[in-house]
Write a structure and sequence with these properties.
By secondary structure, the protein is of the alpha/beta class. It contains nine helices and 26 strands. The protein has a five-stranded parallel β-sheet with strand order 5-2-1-9-20, with helices on one face. A four-stranded parallel β-sheet has the order 13-12-11-17. The longest helix has 28 residues. Bound molecules: flavin-adenine dinucleotide (FAD) and nicotinamide-adenine-dinucleotide (NAD). It comes from Peribacillus muralis. This is NADH dehydrogenase.
């Protein structure tokens, strides 16, 4: 009998966790495993704020996909997925097509701009290695240009971060460490630089522990970040951003760099493939399959699961994506072996740690609040754990964070 083909789309946290578990569980004769990803490398999305600020080189946040897959069991195709044709059981790629018996969609997030004008054209987003390099280089170019221009344009030195969610705050933490170095490098008075965090909600890190939020805000303020809370961004222009000020008033904030970190959605391939979805995220069945599609599993940021305790979706995180990948690998193994008792997914929340640069952080870990160096240490351990789960100790040795203070 022909062995089934399992096609995994996306080599992010969810996709790689699925593949690395599948290659351990299944014998060579049991299934054909194919992994498709845009690049021949995996990047740690959770470290992209560091590469974007320039505090960590982009090569440190990525590694070759082939270094973690078993070539005798998994074939890797470097290509971009355009659509999943569910009726025909085919994946359409930029450069061809692949037929599947089972598919796993783990194509990750995209920046959500909520249709706000000008953001796509004039703002950056922390989305992948390319956008991280662009942000880092753009800020550096603004500083270099300011130093060399005869008529100084101080707006070049203003950086606006839209959104005070975890991404915005983690990026500001890195930026606050990077800017003093840039000032030294380009002979600029630090007082001329402005770093704004513009948040629509009435609080920073909405919903997070207020005591920890206060800690983060006062730390970042001391490092020069100015918070504009309760201030929705309404638009972006070549000169900066437009924000709402009261009922009908708007204000312009001029800035040389605008980074939009105010939300994510699931990958647009989900909608292009005709799945029923909420902002690119499919509300999955308990076994992680897409409703009405017994041959398709969804992992990571493209999957939506409701936290029944609060009747709201779990936030899309690497933590949940990796846990889902493990369950999907188990369920695929069962399906390949014609077993029908599929596992159901339950999220085991280990906590959240938000870095404030390389040397500080806040977090709640196993229900306990942590700040400062302890939290920063734990954040590095969380980062190293992701490497360990996917690539084992050798990947931790090559890519791990050991700069523990
Ligand atoms: P990803 O890991 O993003 O992987 C998606 C993969 O699909 C990528 O390799 C991409 O190249 C590929 N791909 C995309 N489109 C296509 C296509 N059309 N064709 C082929 N390949 C494609 N979560 C935490 O739990 N802890 C944290 O500390 C944390 N920190 C974060 C910090 C930042 C700056 C950001 C932006 C996010 C952070 N998150 C964190 C959230 C976390 O990164 C995501 O939830 C997680 O990456 C989702 O995993 P995924 O497998 O769905 O997608
Ligand atoms: P988010 O949705 O969590 O936060 C976006 C923020 O932008 C919100 O505070 C929102 O109020 C604000 N916002 C929305 N529209 C706005 C507007 N028009 N003007 C100004 N502000 C606006 O998004 P995120 O921070 O990118 O996080 C995405 C996911 O990744 C989340 O699930 C998060 O938990 C996860 N993440 C986790 C970590 C961590 O655990 N350390 C780090 C980064 C991201």
């Amino acid at each position: 009998m022909k062995k089934p083909t399992i096609v995994v789309l996306g080599a992010g946290y969810g996709g790689l966790m699925t593949v690395t578990r599948l290659q351990k569980a299944l014998g060579q004769n049991e299934a054909e495993i194919v992994l498709v990803n845009k690049n021949d490398y995996h990047y740690e999305t959770t470290w992209l704020h560091e590469a974007s600020a320039g505090t960590l080189h982009h090569d440190r946040v990525r590694y070759p996909i082939k270094s973690v897959i078993n070539g005798s069991k998994v074939s890797f195709i470097q290509d971009s997925v355009l659509e999943v044709k569910t009726e025909d059981k085919k994946v359409v790629l930029e450069n061809g097509e692949i037929a599947y018996d089972y598919a796993v969609i783990g194509l990750g997030p995209e920046s959500e701009t909520f249709g706000i004008q000008g953001l796509k054209e004039y703002a950056f987003s922390i989305s992948n290695v390319n956008t991280a390099r662009e942000i880092r280089d753009h800020i550096q170019l603004q500083f270099a240009t300011y130093s060399s221009e005869a008529e100084k344009n101080e707006d070049r030195l203003t950086i606006v971060v839209g959104g005070a969610g975890f991404t915005g705050i983690e990026f500001l933490g890195e930026l606050a460490n990077r800017v003093p170095d840039l000032c030294k490098e380009y002979d600029i008075d630090f007082k001329k630089v402005r770093m704004y965090c513009v948040e629509a909600a009435p609080a920073v890190l909405p919903g997070f522990d207020p005591e920890l939020v206060d800690y983060a805000v006062s730390y970042l303020e001391k490092k020069g970040v100015e918070f504009k809370i309760g201030t929705p961004i309404k638009g972006a222009t070549p000169e900066g951003i437009i924000v709402s000020k009261g009922e009908d008033e708007v204000e312009e904030i001029k800035a040389g760099t605008v980074v939009w970190a105010a939300g994510v959605r699931g990958n647009s391939v989900i909608e292009a493939s005709g799945f029923e979805a909420m902002r690119g995220r499919i509300k999955v069945n308990l076994d992680m399959r897409a409703p009405g599609h017994d041959d398709i599993f969804i992992v990571g940021d493209c999957a939506l699961i409701i936290n029944e305790e609060i009747n709201r979706p779990y936030p899309p995180t690497a933590q949940i994506a990796m846990q889902q990948g493990e369950v999907i690998a188990k369920n695929l193994t069962k399906l390949v072996r014609n077993e029908s008792d599929l596992e159901t997914f339950t999220f085991e929340n280990k906590g959240t740690v938000c870095s404030l640069g390389d040397d500080n952080a806040i977090g709640v870990v196993f229900g306990k609040k942590v700040t400062g160096k302890t939290a920063s240490f734990l954040k590095k351990m969380v980062d190293n754990r992701a490497l360990l789960l996917i690539g084992g100790p050798s990947l931790v040795a090559k890519k791990g964070k050991f700069n523990i203070l």
